[in-house]
Write a structure and sequence with these properties.
Length: 511
């Protein structure tokens, strides 16, 4: 049965209306003959802009008023931000589907004009009402921003996204945290329907430095970035139509996230973030927070990893390397001629896989976006006074960086001479590898972790008998290159998120 008319309800904010129209476009792409009537309504959470969300007595402050209209048949469908939904939505309605999920991560904005103040006072004031963000971001701000910050102050803020951004710019506060999905949707809004949003928002963003906070240190609120499409539980005909629009993978991930939150009781007062990411090698689960009893926890794993090394019988003398510092396969000699080229870069996105790829004391113009392979590189560059905008979080440059709404700059990769081909076509060779001749005692080694394909080539050229051993590495270019080298033997090549994860699992197996 195809419906002639469907009444779609959302909250009144610009973002909520944009999300409703996003659903409408997807529905009409499948069923162009349906007439959609968009309706809006203010909720109790929209009306009370003083009480922090974590202190409100009811979890459903942004959803319950809308659900009442659905139950009373004043509408057919509600479009929610899934993170706004209480864990128990009741039996009269259900979340039928979700659309393709937007970015789960948070954005941190820091006013450019406040940088000197932050440096002089060694403290920073951040606008956020979220207990999760406050808990996760304090150490991130002190460790990963290029300032010597001794104290992080959080200040509550309420209102819709555009209102909050306006309050931030007009306040004395230094920084502001917001869901990246919200900014992306506002900047991508249909200009015919919302002609002023981009004009209003972009000038405010341009007054700020920004970075995308990685899920490894700041897992999202469960469901962040996903839209929940709610219908009456007995509306089977409508559900049948909607199921054709469902993103099953994203739906499953949100259910898993909400299930994790359920273990701790749920609610906006919780200092808990949990994210499930789908990748080519499985799901990554990231969780971090503090229980109601004050017990901290943090986990980043490959969910249901079938190649879990911790279940195997391994002795420490069978692994290589036992410590990363034990072996230095190469000297990295700076190519002096690159420095002038780096200094001249303007309005580029620069990918840096390791901090040594950017020569010491090298100036990088602030118009460039800096993206790094992982947290270790980010931290080292921040210590050198360099603003980093984000990281692939150890997933490699092939992972979806998803920053097109914030920048369309050309990508350039800093790497070594003779580096293997890369997704990023424009390359600046900033150093050259020079082999160190070292003695390796690997006769009894059975399990190897490789930080780079160059290190793998170095060892396998000297010890080809290790081909049939068990090899591990991260999921990026290193994995692709080693897989190509091993060819038929690549059945013994597995992904672990980091050397430390791999080593810790081995220690668990030994224990």
């Amino acid at each position: 049965m195809i419906f002639e008319n469907i009444n779609v309800l959302s909250r009144k904010s610009d973002l909520a209306v944009i999300q409703a129209h996003e659903f409408g476009r997807v529905l009409l792409s499948k069923y162009p003959s349906i007439n959609i009537n968009f309706k809006t309504k203010s909720t109790s959470g929209d009306k009370d802009l003083q009480t922090p969300l974590s202190e409100m007595p009811n979890e459903g402050v942004f959803t319950d008023d809308l659900r009442d209209d659905l139950i009373k048949k004043n509408c057919d469908i509600i479009i929610h931000s899934w993170k706004d939904l209480p864990l128990d939505v009741g039996s009269e309605t259900e979340i039928a589907i979700t659309l393709n999920r937007a970015d789960e991560r948070d954005l941190l904005f820091i006013k450019k004009n406040n940088i000197d103040k932050i440096k002089n006072e060694r403290s920073i004031f951040i606008l956020s009402s979220s207990p999760r963000r406050k808990y996760n971001l304090e150490n991130f701000i002190t460790d990963f921003l290029p300032f010597q910050i001794q104290k992080v102050h959080f200040q509550n803020i309420r209102g819709n996204i555009l209102t909050r951004f306006k309050k931030f710019i007009e306040s004395d506060s230094d920084g502001f945290v917001v869901a990246k999905a919200a900014i992306d949707r506002l900047l991508n809004a249909d200009l015919k329907l919302f002609p002023e949003i981009k004009k209003t928002l972009l000038p405010k963003i341009n007054k700020c430095y920004w970075n995308v906070v990685p899920l490894s240190v700041n897992p999202s609120s469960p469901g962040q970035g996903a839209l929940a499409i709610e219908i009456r539980s007995n509306d089977n005909n409508l559900k049948k139509i909607l199921l054709e629009l469902n993103n099953k993978e994203d739906y499953e991930n949100v259910i898993l996230e909400r299930g994790e939150l359920q273990k701790y009781g749920g609610g906006c007062h919780q200092k808990i973030g949990v994210s499930f990411q789908s990748t080519h090698f499985g799901k990554i689960k990231s969780s971090k927070g503090e229980t109601d009893k004050g017990i901290p926890f943090q986990e980043r794993i490959i969910y249901k990893n079938s190649n879990d090394i911790s279940s195997q019988q391994i002795s420490l003398n069978e692994i290589f390397p036992e410590n990363l510092s034990d072996h230095s396969f190469f000297k990295r000699n700076v190519i002096e001629s690159c420095k002038k080229e780096l200094t001249a870069l303007r309005n580029k996105c620069i990918w840096i896989s390791r901090q040594s790829a950017l020569p010491l004391n090298q100036e990088i113009h602030s118009s460039n976006v800096i993206w790094v392979s992982g947290l270790e590189t980010w931290k080292k560059l921040a210590e050198r006074g360099i603003w980093v905008n984000g990281t692939s979080d150890g997933l490699g440059e092939d992972s979806d960086l998803n920053i097109e709404t914030l920048t369309t700059n050309q990508w350039i990769k800093l790497t070594h001479l003779d580096a293997p081909p890369s997704k990023i076509r424009h390359v600046i060779a900033t150093y050259q590898l020079e082999e160190n001749e070292i003695s390796l005692n690997i006769a009894n080694k059975k399990y190897f972790y490789w930080m780079s394909s160059s290190a793998f080539k170095y060892v396998i050229d000297r010890h080809p008998n290790i081909r049939d051993k068990v090899h591990f590495c991260g999921p990026g270019n290193t994995y692709k290159e080693i897989k190509n080298i091993l060819a038929d033997d690549s059945k013994n090549l597995f992904i672990e998120l980091s050397y430390n994860d791999w080593k810790n699992k081995i220690l668990q197996a030994i224990d």
